Amino acid sequence: MENGGSLTTARGEEGKRSGKKKEPFPPVPSGLEMGEDSDGRKYPSCQALWDEEIGGDHAKHKQWYARAEEYWKQQAISVDGVLGGYGNVSPTDLSGSLRFLDKIGKLPAGRGGPCEWGRALDCGAGIGRVTEGCLLHRFKHADVVEPRAEYVEKAKTLLDRQRVERFDCEALQTFVPEAGRYDCIWVQWVSLYLTDEDFVSFLQRCKTALRPQGVVVLKENVVLDGGFHVDKSDNSIMRADSHYRELFTRAGMNLLLDMRQPNFPKQLYPVLMYCLR
Ligand SMILES: C[S@@+](CC[C@H](N)C(=O)[O-])C[C@H]1O[C@@H](n2cnc3c(N)ncnc32)[C@H](O)[C@@H]1O
Questions:
Q1: Topology classification of domain 31-276
Q2: What percentage of the chain has pLDDT greater than the value 90?
Q3: Per residue in 56-91, pLDDT tens?
């Protein structure tokens, strides 16, 4: 999918199949996405999930994140470790990301124009795989933020310290990127750990952290043909494309470009890249 291609087409066709008269690309109202978790539990809406898991309770909110923290503590400090045993897809992933950045570099003025290539921020950076294999190939400088201290320490040994200026050890639900610092904020395979509310609020903080032509890039596993899925082993949520789009709107961000990661093995979930400003 590029520029809203195949996914929006699929939604339009759904409308045709049902036989009902519909707008070609109807907005998905908040909370109407159904979903399930890995224990087989069904939820009528995502709000029902958050009401149950968090329900405005500070302790439950901490507990939600504790499970991911516990999970990540057990993983190897390597590319294979950060990719859940799929280290072999890293080169394909990185070349897809570079291709997407090159498209962002050619955004026409009518769609906001390209970003500049000064400084990027790699969010939920793991050991800095994306910074090393993608961001530093286009941007002069980068910063990384990652909550697991061992990953941050490893990133310090792997990355060019002349060009990577900051190594912050913090989780995204509390992290506040510096205002006006970034041309690109890259968020890959980590938004799935954030609650909807924390993700929207993080995007809003990112907006403040962008330079005038700056962009946020989200690269994530996405459900293309159903509702959300929660994996209870690490408290991650795989959201539908429509769900993400609704969260971008809630955060007050515009979607400039999107593209599906090409050439991934069939057994992997679809991965989409979204460019927001
Ligand atoms: C699948 S790995 C991806 C790492 C990196 N983005 C990459 O693509 O190589 C997920 C990373 O997110 C981090 N993480 C988990 N929960 C997080 C949170 N709440 N805030 C920030 N990072 C988190 C983990 O420690 C881990 O490094």
A1: Rossmann fold (3.40.50)
A2: 87
A3: 999 999 999 999 999 999 999 999 999 999 999 999
Q: Which residue, chain included where needed, has tokens 């320490």? A: 153
Q: Which residues line ligand 1 (CB under 6 A)?
A: 65, 68, 72, 82, 124-126, 129-130, 146-148, 151, 171-173, 188-190, 193
The residue whose CA is least distant from atom 11 of ligand 1 is: 124
Rounded to whole angstroms, the Cα distance separating 147 from 162 reads 22
What are the structural domain ranges in the chain?
Answer: 31-276
d(CA 273, CA 180) in angstroms, rounded, equals 23
Give residue 175's pLDDT band: very low, low, confident or very high (50, 70, 90): very high
Residue among 71, 190, 237 whose CB has most ligand 1 atoms within 8 A, to mutate = 190
End-to-end CA distance of the chain: 19
In the reported structure, the alpha carbon of residue 108 is separated from the centroid of ligand 1 by a whole-number distance in angstroms of 32
Residue nearest to atom 19 of ligand 1 (CA): 171
